[in-house]
Amino acid sequence: MRTTFGKRAARLALGFVLCTAMAAFGFVAPAPTAYAATSAEKKAEAEALMKSIDELQTSLNEANDEYDRATEEYETAKAAADRAAIRLREANKLVEHFQERLAQCATNMYKSGGSASMLDVLLGASSFDEAVTLWDSFGKISEQEAALVQESKDAQAEAEAAEKDLAEQEAIAEQEAENAKAARDEIAAAKEDMDAQLEQVNEELVMLKAKEESESLAADEALRRLQEADALVGGSGSTIAGWSHPIPSGAPVTNEFGWAGAWDGEYHNGIDLGAPTGTPIVAAAPGTVSYVGDYGSGGKAVKINHGSGLVTIYMHMSSQAATMGQRVSAGDVIGYVGSTGYSTGPHLHFQIELDGTPVNPRHFIHF
Question: Per UniProt, what is one Pfam family of this protein (predicted)?
Answer without folding.
Answer: Peptidase_M23
